[in-house]
Design goal:
Length: 495
């Protein structure tokens, strides 16, 4: 009986002494690494300005141009001149009158062409030398043909329209009968006179285009709308400020036969400020800056994401992987803080099983990495991941090799934080801004092929210039697309 009691006592001692020792020297190594030392310093002191372009393609239907030119060009032309049409006519002169039909514009794909049929008559008078005697001439010629021209309009930097007009006249019927002496072709004579009259009348088209298609007046409301100051954070106080700087002018687009597109862009600077700047004071429209390529909307909007907000997203990230050397590593409970030189420090709660190379590791370690936007997956990722100095000092050589050689590569390839909420927020704001009640009367705006995505990410030391250090990150969201602005045809009806 005494032997049994002794055996139980020895067993109890073994449980109380040997098992803790086994856990200490044989079980997983428990480590708790302190955060990296040093002052958090962002890649930038405060958010940098972002340049955005709001592309505006103003649709001008061909019907508007047809109405305009038919209103501006007279329906009837007439004139007269004292001249001898041949050497055999003395004291000659003629008078003519023509009436045009409807003028029709055509988008040729590279420029604008317009034409209208016309008919009329010319009356010639004079003294005809018939060699034996002189006979009075009083004869009428029927006239018909097509009149029109080619337009290669250009919007000049001072917002004027230079039509680059080349008139064209084709007389298909212009013969004058001289009785027994036959007929003569008077196309050259009348063609010159009619051509001068046509050029004179069509010369009125440029100011008419400038008055009716008043691009300055159409773009000005949009220009004023771009001046924006809006509160985006109360604690700390932050406002987003948008200041337009330029109006860009691209070549006219002739790709749609039913219309022309006048392509413009409003280039703005978007930045963050730490105080309410008050109501913005819109500046007058500047002169146009000509470009030789099309313009699409490309908005770049900086969003500050606080560390606490980022950590909410990181806390939900858990994953595990096989090292290939007999050890599985589980990671959970990630937490971030701003490091230095544009890096984020990440705390990882991990459980690494024992491998052939040594004991397992369990506890908290720290790694550091550079945040980046995974463009393909539209998520937050990391590059240049490495163990912190404090973590490396806590680990054995085998464990450090295992974690740095395998864990680091896994974090770079697998750690992705979904940031869809930010894209959705911008998408909603863009669509809200395009609601008709917020636009000037007579404009219909649509943004086609809208694509909202994550464009850039970087760390900051403070939220705004002059503010106290409060490190965070900035995510730059881009919204691209083709913005089409249609002018209401009612604005251009003949008065």
């Amino acid at each position: 009986m005494k032997k049994v009691s002794l055996f139980i006592a020895i067993a109890i001692v073994a449980v109380l002494v040997i098992v803790p020792l086994a856990a200490r020297f044989v079980g997983p190594k428990m480590i708790y690494v302190s955060p990296p030392s040093g002052t958090p310093i962002g890649e930038f002191d405060f958010p940098r300005p972002e340049t955005s372009v709001l592309g505006v393609s103003i649709k001008v239907p061909m019907t508007i141009l047809n109405d305009l030119i038919n209103k501006e060009v007279p329906e009837q032309f007439q004139g007269q001149e004292q001249t001898n049409i041949t050497k055999r006519i003395q004291n000659g002169g003629y008078a003519w009158a023509v009436a045009r039909g409807k003028i029709e514009f055509q988008n040729t794909g590279t420029n604008l062409a317009f034409a209208a049929p016309f008919t009329g008559a010319a009356r010639f008078q004079g003294d005809l030398d018939a060699k034996i005697l002189t006979l009075p001439l009083d004869s009428t010629a029927e006239l018909s043909g097509m009149g029109g021209g080619i337009l290669n309009p250009v919007i000049t930097p001072d917002w004027q329209i230079d039509p680059n007009l080349v008139p064209q006249l084709n007389l298909t019927n212009a013969s004058l009968s001289l009785g027994a002496l036959g007929t003569i072709d008077i196309s050259d004579i009348l063609g010159g006179t009619l051509g001068q009259m046509l050029q004179s009348e069509l010369g009125k088209l440029a100011p008419a285009l400038g008055q009716e298609l008043d691009l300055r007046s159409e773009v000005e409301p949009l220009w004023r709308e771009v001046f924006l100051n809006q509160s985006v954070s109360e604690d700390p106080p932050v406002w987003i400020s948008i200041t337009p700087e330029k109006v860009l002018m691209a070549p006219i687009d002739y790709s749609d036969p039913s219309q022309i597109l006048i392509n413009m862009g409003i280039q703005s600077e978007t930045f963050l400020t730490n105080r309410d700047p008050g109501q913005p004071i819109p500046q007058p429209l500047p002169q146009l800056t000509p470009l030789d390529y099309p313009i699409d909307t490309n908005l770049r909007i900086p969003l500050i994401v606080g560390i606490s907000e980022l950590n909410e997203a990181l806390a939900s990230q858990t994953f595990e992987f096989d090292t290939g050397v007999g050890t599985r590593i589980e990671i959970a409970g990630m937490e971030a803080e701003i490091g230095q030189e544009g890096r984020l420090n990440l705390k990882l709660i991990l459980q690494a099983d024992k491998s052939r190379l040594g004991r397992g590791v369990s506890g908290e370690i720290w790694v550091t990495g550079r945040p980046l936007i995974d463009v393909e997956n539209q998520s937050l990722g990391f590059s240049d991941v490495e163990l912190t100095v404090e973590t490396r000092d806590k680990l054995t050589t085998a464990a450090a090799w295992l974690l740095e050689g395998i864990l680091v590569r896994t974090l770079e390839s697998q750690l992705r934080v979904d940031l869809d909420d930010y894209k959705e927020e911008i998408d909603e704001e863009v669509q809200k801004a395009l609601q008709s009640e917020n636009l000037p009367e007579g404009l219909d705006v649509t943004l086609e092929n809208l694509n909202v995505g994550l464009a850039d990410i970087y760390t900051i030391t403070r939220y705004f210039a002059g503010g106290e250090p409060d490190p965070g990150i900035v995510i730059v969201v881009s919204a691209t697309g083709s913005m089409k602005t249609t002018l209401s045809p009612a604005l251009f009806q003949p008065q």
